[in-house]
DNA sequence: CATGAATGAGGCTTCATTCAT
DNA sequence: GATGAATGAAGCCTCATTCAT
């Protein structure tokens, strides 16, 4: 009976992907000791493969070669581990797109381009942690959730402002700022659903590519189907 | 801290949103009886709010006013309920973008536009079921998962073909078919993360808007930063 | 390592004492089903022998031949089982000493006698449940604890009033009402520390005996050591 | 509901009652170092507030500002700490009522009075440690329990002998020695359930008061309800 | 069909105790 | 002596699932 937790990707499987190993460990505050950082890395992998609720605290600690109770020496609860991961990821993204190198770019085009490229690149490079950070929000307590929502909002504001500036200055086409910003963020985030570091795109390349798409979205005026020289037969088809 | 299953959206909450009520019940095969269909609808809401693993079979059955055992009269297991939901959703999407009204459109521009509009519209209208169908794949058994992957692939092929056709016929710019198709699908799916039926966009409007963005992505040639008339100071900044 | 829970009396041991079997089952509200009542009886025995915290939920349910989880079909938590026991015991005592047959006795002497006899008799007859009810209060939640304190207070009031009446009417000696009432309650309760139904005293006999002691305490004026005809040598000894 | 260990009295609370601070530290053999004595004092408070099983070794050591492992530098186990407390308390009581000043009193009245006064006074003064010593016996190992039972028996014998002497010499009424001794001990012990040093009675006053009650119990002949001048109506009522 | 008590397999967390530093 | 990370053995409680009614 009960065919529970058929976990498609086990910790072992992931161990086989060296790219996953390389990524998370660079994420955590160095103020933490080595063991808690390893636990966070293990948790990221487990949560990303099986989801928060399908991951046991045993999975996390045994991923570091420790006993079940060891987790609680360093974190008050499983939920706190999740929170730590999500909070860190959200903060890192925000600070990565808020660095002076990006913020100080005067030209709206280059500014947005840099923003999107960095945002996308970060999510690609940290796609495992990002998956947890985007898809496991339901595992957070109400209080922790609120805290994350704040950071998300700040990040959104950064993008909306960038698009807005381009429109206001007339460099971009006359587009719907809120909707287009939302779409740009979608492009930069949704890749976590399918991205793999060992695929054909490096994080940097994917960033550039996505930035190009974003620019097309903001710089092109709406396409008028009639004016687009579309044949008569298809006009009626719609 | 962190209460067990703090369920941001409870069944009750969702009950309060009539839009959610209206949507799922239209999804299920009419060959099924009324009770199983109600159970599926209840399950969709629970899975969407709390996730598959955080949802209990009691949540599902009590959402229809039935006792714990009732679920098993109609479904062999909780995982089968999930499978039924995900399979139905995937099939509906595929058939919705494969209808003659779309397939027979000759003009690549109008064809892609219709495709994206429909795809987006479907996900917006059924955003609750779509959330389950996209984010709870990890809850499926390996065998069921495979079955879903097939359908997803077919859907992807439809989009890739549409983009390809535009490029081949020279109607679209000379773009990277695979990457752009992927990005278009991202736009049409990612809205399930934030879309609400009671928001400012109707599914139809969002579909049109997204279609426009997709057209911009396929019809605009790459933007040359130098040629874009960017000022000198920022040129060096990059 | 760890020689935890050496439980002097196990459920089995107690099973051997038929007197224990006879007592508790008569305590519970008949509105409850048979299984919950059996669980309460089992819990009383476990808590009395090992204490609340040293009793496992498994001990309780296996004492009725059920599986570990069965307890939770009938009670929300272990603490609720304790509360139910303590509440029932406290209420029964109060109502037993508040019955018309006692309350309506006009004569203060006979009134107090009846009160003490009944109070003592109840604790003797239900000494196992009473032990839980008196010594395991620390296991209650704050809210539940408050509820019990209320009932205790009511019971205390009954005794204090009885003593007061005797003093006011001049039937008793001129004693300290509060302190003597407290002492009388001590006599009626402390027997739960050592009483056994199979000992030489029946609950009724012990009740009568204790009532006699209580009467001596209220009807005798303070003893003056000097006037008590005590020899000179001992006077200085003090 | 019901939080784990809702500890009505925490170490902090107790810290606030200077009387509690003053009492236990005087109990321990001076042959022990200062740290172990402080640990015992901390343990007494914890065990008294929450019970042995609900007290963690961390509670005890942190109550002295030490780390978890510190306890084991001085005691082999938590149970040994409990044993040390209970043994010390029991021995102190026995020796306190066995001092020459009491034993040499010739007069049975003054002898019993002194015995009860001292016994009561000790329990009042050390009511916190006494609570542990009386109510946490179930936490002891079988071997340790036996050792304690011995001491208790010796103490009981002292009281029984005192009462017996009074009866034999005709100074006391013709009472049931065993039962009355038991009742007297009840009066001297049960106060630990409710006594507080900051209440209206000092240990000495409570001792005197209880001694008076004991004397009334041994010196008064049984009260004959008929002869007690009770009115006719109540005679039949019984 | 539906019920709901019961099961049994964990899952999260706690905690007495150990041990390297 | 003291520390505090680590252990491993439970303990409370949950939950998918079964089955007699």
Automatic annotation (TrEMBL), chains A, B, C, D:
Lineage top rank: taxon: Bacteria
Q: Which SUPFAM superfamilies match?
A: Homeodomain-like, Tetracyclin repressor-like, C-terminal domain
Q: Where are the transmembrane segments?
A: none
Give the coiled coil ranges.
Answer: none
Q: Does the keyword Oxidoreductase apply?
A: no
Give yes or no: UniProt keyword DNA-binding: yes
Question: Keywords, A to Z?
Answer: DNA-binding
Q: Name one Pfam family in it.
A: TetR_N
Q: Name one GO molecular function term.
A: transcription cis-regulatory region binding
UniProt region (Disordered), positions on chain? 1-29
Q: According to the UniProt record, which residues make up the DNA-binding region?
A: 56-75
HTH tetR-type domain mapped to chain residues: 33-93
The protein's name is TetR family transcriptional regulator
């Amino acid at each position: 009976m009960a065919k529970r937790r058929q976990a498609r990707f086990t910790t072992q499987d992931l161990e086989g992907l060296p790219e996953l190993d390389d990524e998370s460990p660079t994420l955590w505050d160095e103020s933490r000791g080595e063991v808690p950082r390893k636990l966070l890395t293990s948790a990221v992998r487990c949560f990303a493969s099986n989801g928060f609720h399908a991951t046991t605290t045993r999975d996390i600690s045994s991923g570091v070669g420790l006993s079940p109770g060891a987790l609680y020496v360093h974190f008050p609860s499983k939920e706190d581990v999740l929170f730590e991961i999500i909070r860190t990821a959200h903060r890192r993204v925000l600070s990565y797109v808020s660095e002076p190198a990006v913020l100080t770019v005067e030209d709206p085009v280059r500014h947005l381009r840099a923003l999107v490229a960095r945002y996308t690149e970060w999510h690609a490079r940290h796609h495992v942690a990002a998956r947890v950070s985007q898809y496991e929000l339901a595992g957070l307590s109400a209080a922790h959730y609120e805290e994350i929502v704040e950071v998300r909002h700040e990040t959104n504001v950064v993008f909306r402002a960038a698009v807005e500036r381009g429109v206001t200055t007339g460099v971009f086409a006359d587009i719907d700022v809120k909707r287009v910003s939302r779409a740009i963020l979608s492009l930069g985030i949704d890749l976590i659903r399918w991205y793999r570091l060992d695929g054909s795109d490096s994080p940097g390349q994917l960033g550039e590519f996505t930035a190009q798409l974003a620019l097309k979205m903001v710089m092109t005026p709406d396409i008028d189907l009639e004016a687009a020289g579309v044949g008569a037969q298809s006009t009626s088809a719609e």
